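Components:
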Amino acid sequence: MKAKDRRLQVLRAQIPEVTPEEARALQADSAVLLDVRERDETLQGVAEGAVVLGRDFLELNIEDVAPDPERCVLVMCGSGVRSLFAAEGLRQMGYRDVRSVAGGFNRWKDQGLPFHIPKVLSADSRARYARQILLPEVGERGQQKLADARVLLIGAGGLGAPAGLYLTAAGVGTIGVLDHDLVDRSNLQRQIIHTDARVGQPKVESAREALVALNPSVRVQTHPVRLSRENVEDVFSGYDVIVDGSDNFPTRYLVNDACVHLGLPNVHGSILRFDGQVSTFWPAGPDGGPCYRCLFPSPPPPELAPSCNEAGVLGVLPGIVGLLQATEVLKLILGIGHTLVGRLLCFDALNMHFREFNFDKDSTCAYCGSGPFPGYVDYGKFCDASA
Amino acid sequence: MRACGWVLMTNRVSVVAERVTLLIPAALRMHCDGADTLAVNAGTVRAALAAAGKDHAALVQHILTRTGELRPFVRVFVRNNDVRGLGGLDTALNDGDTVAIVPSVAGG
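Structure:
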């Protein structure tokens, strides 16, 4: 008898084995199912609910998947042999209830139990995003989430430019760009997605050119329109996250109301002179949270609301604020970290201060409260009527 | 030791005036000679704004309505919390508190 067979005989006596059907039932009873096969093997399919954790990094990463050593862990490989060795490693780490799935994935599949064919990154994508995939919080699974995500930039201006470039670089699969304007030379001091050679072009086309040049795999959807209550739901319905980089109050309230109505996260950024503000409004999200109207129920009257055209803006400021927005978007897609839901981050560039303020949902808010959606309004009039 | 100790009467409650700092955003600094902070002695947010308004009336006009209420496009935060969740303009201030004024801005 070969040494490996002698070892397997010992392991079979020590490690309890379960059939795929029994594993399925234990999964429903909170057991975690680990698939320890090589990456190429998992391309044939992965059992429903299984966590793919290659044998090479099993001991290093198991605590991210199953931090409680008392939890039942089911280990699966291709045929039920390597899973015995993996199970032994977990027992040595202190996991008390570790079982091996007899027959492995082959038997699971043969018995008609549910599985899916995983989406995998191409070799080019694995190379391009290597530094990001290295992060345990991202990994290949997170990178695939980014590839599947659809993010809409409201405005290809100071905020949309850096946000769009970095989200594209990070591998967000679909980027929508909404802007009705043309590139003006006065934009170039801060709107770094555009170039001097593209002055006069529609901003959405200029942005598309820059984004595709940076990452040819990105799908750019252009919306060369002015956002209105008539088109907002059609435009937003194809996206998972909205990045508000607009430059006027009527659009900001329209974006808020549509996001609330459609249940979409609204990653807000705004700038003036040397100051920036960032928050994430997502009343329909897992943490609930306030909307833009909860923070600012109504806008300032036009005479008290100077724009960047009138009051000026430091060129680098939207770069910083737009990238804070991009960071929020990546966390939302990946489901990691803590977003700015319920918090307003204020940046003072002159004094280099970041300050964070807490604010609550307004229980009387007509838009994100418990009542029916009040509908869209005439946002121009709404803002003109403010006092 | 408190920095100072005179007594103001606000809403019939005696409040000890404290040394506090108002943080002025860039958008409003033109109304207070470019200052990014104003140091005042006040026991409540309302009193702090009133103290600032003595020398900078236009600043306070951007923050409060004519009837003395907080404008809906300006938020005030004490100890990093929205005063609407505390005591509103009557939120009591402690010695050394910062009172942050944050107006909504729309630039992008």
